[in-house]
Design goal:
Blueprint lengths: L2 H21 L1 H19 L4 H31 L5 H34 L3
Helix pairs in contact: 2-3, 3-4
């Protein structure tokens, strides 16, 4: 694949992220939370391994949000009418977002609570 084609793919991927930012409130909220978490990571001087875990967790949350949004867009393209199978598909995508959210919460509690408890 030529460099020009590779750059085009990156450009299209970046456009998708911009679309997520513009159109999805949940993505904007997650981005703000990610910035806060990264600032807290810096302020609390978490270890390098913990920082990698935090960054990977943030990336996983963003990726699942993007995939869930893509799934919802595809379902809406198929039909806007209520359809049991479409509803199930959307629920499964939403469930994936919930699962990664719970995992991110557990990671955050595991890394940050011990540091905050040191202040008590």
């Amino acid at each position: 694949m030529s460099l020009a084609k590779k750059l085009l793919h990156v450009r299209l991927s970046w456009r998708a992220i911009v679309t997520l930012w513009r159109e999805e409130l949940s993505f904007r909220i997650q981005t703000v939370c990610a910035v806060v978490i990264l600032l807290a990571s810096w302020a609390l001087k978490i270890s390098g391994v913990e920082l990698v875990i935090v960054i990977l967790t943030i990336g996983a949350v963003f990726a699942v949000e993007a995939l869930n949004t893509a799934l919802e867009e595809l379902c809406d393209h198929v039909t806007l009418d209520r359809h049991p199978q479409i509803g199930k598909i959307k629920d499964l995508g939403s469930g994936a977002s919930l699962l990664i959210g719970i995992a991110a919460f557990v990671v955050g509690i595991s890394i940050f609570v011990p540091r905050f408890s040191a202040f008590l």
